[in-house]
């Protein structure tokens, strides 16, 4: 076997590290994409019994976006195994306690109830901001595309861009705003 062919084969079996920016992303739609990489479905050697998934590093989990009134309506269940130990926590409360937990729970539920879910979750690394430890940052070799574009805030647009924007209506010079 030639060296090039052997390197290709090693590349297929290697675990790659991907980074995903969760800024303004729906965690439940993003979890489908993240689980795809954690399971290794993008690899040609994928088989349900193989453990060939990749590592995924999720950054900025504190900036996730839920649709509509899901922050108030979505509830997470937890039971501490004691009598009357059941509790239901709203999404905004859970996010306030731990900004990484909603993304982790979304990915955990998408992975399904297989025996490999525990090993797939070990390859998920969620950070609430964009500060990644150097040991992990050195391994990252790929980026997962965001599902929706992040809108630009108006106070982040420069004055030159605002001046170059086409004006639809020419207001009179003596126009007074009330």
Give a structural overview.
With 178 residues, this protein is α/β, with parallel strands linked by helices. The protein is built from eight helices and six strands; from the N terminus they run αβαβαββαααβαβα. It has helices spanning 3-13, 27-39, 70-73, 91-97, 101-110, 117-122, 134-137, 159-164, and strands at 17-21, 55-59, 75-79, 86-90, 124-126, 140-143. A four-stranded parallel beta sheet has the order 5-2-1-6. A two-stranded antiparallel ribbon has the order 3-4. α2 packs across α5. Keywords: Ribonucleoprotein, Ribosomal protein.
What keywords describe this structure?
178 residues, alpha/beta, Ribosomal Protein L13p, Chain: A, four-stranded parallel beta sheet, two-stranded antiparallel ribbon, 6 strands, 15% strand, structural constituent of ribosome, Ribosomal_uL13
Count of alpha/pi helices? 8
Shape: flat
In which order are the strands of the major sheet placed?
A: 5-2-1-6
How far apart, in Å, are the first and last alpha carbons?
A: 79 Å
Q: What is the overall pLDDT average?
A: 92
- The H/E string reads HEHEHEEHHHEHEH
Family: Belongs to the universal ribosomal protein uL13 family.
Keywords: Ribonucleoprotein, Ribosomal protein
GO molecular function, one term: structural constituent of ribosome
InterPro entries: Ribosomal_uL13, Ribosomal_uL13_bac-type, Ribosomal_uL13_sf
